[in-house]
C-alpha cells in the first residue's frame, strides 16, 4: 500500500532523519505539536496496531528501544516525553501506516478523560 510514509521510506519525499536502520526510520514531523516531535515508523508496511501480529512483536520492541534512544539523544529522556500510537479513525490516525509520535521538549498538556483511574 502506498502512503506518504512509504514515499518517505523510498526517498521520493525528503525528510529530516533522526534515525535509520534496515527496519525503522525516524524523522522530524513537518507540523510539530511540541518542540521535539519525531515520527518513528517501521519500514515494513503495517496499516495500524490492529494489524500487528506475533511475528511483528520484535519490530515493535525495537521501535520502543529506538524511541528511548532518540529521547536521550534529543535531550528529553530526563524531563519526559510522550510516545503515542494512534490506531483507527476515532484516534485521529491520518496515515494508514503504523507510526509513533515522540513528543517532548515542553510540559505537555494532560490527556483527555480520567487518566487517574488508568494509571
From TrEMBL:
One example GO MF annotation: hydrolase activity
The UniProt record lists the keyword Magnesium: no
Catalytic center residues: 99
Keywords: Hydrolase
InterPro entries xref list: Histidine_triad_HIT, HIT-like, HIT-like_sf
Placement of sequence motif Histidine triad motif: 97-101
CDD domains given in the database record: PKCI_related
Domain HIT: 4-113
Cross-referenced PANTHER family: HISTIDINE TRIAD HIT PROTEIN (PTHR23089)
Protein known as: HIT family hydrolase
Organism of provenance: Paenibacillus wynnii
Upper lineage: Bacteria, Bacillati, Bacillota, Bacilli, Bacillales
Amino acid at each position: 500500500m502506498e502512503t506518504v510514509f512509504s514515499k518517505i521510506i523510498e526517498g521520493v519525499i525528503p525528510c529530516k532523519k533522526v534515525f535509520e536502520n534496515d527496519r525503522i526510520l525516524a524523522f522530524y514531523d513537518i507540523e510539530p505539536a511540541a518542540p521535539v516531535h519525531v515520527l518513528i515508523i517501521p519500514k515494513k508496511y503495517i496499516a495500524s496496531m490492529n494489524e500487528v501480529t506475533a511475528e511483528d512483536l520484535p519490530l515493535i520492541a525495537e521501535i520502543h528501544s529506538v524511541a528511548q534512544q532518540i529521547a536521550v539523544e534529543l535531550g528529553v529522556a530526563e524531563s519526559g516525553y510522550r510516545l503515542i500510537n494512534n490506531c483507527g479513525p476515532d484516534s485521529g490516525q491520518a496515515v494508514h501506516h503504523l507510526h509513533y509520535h515522540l513528543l517532548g521538549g515542553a510540559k505537555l498538556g494532560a490527556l483527555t478523560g480520567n487518566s487517574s483511574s488508568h494509571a
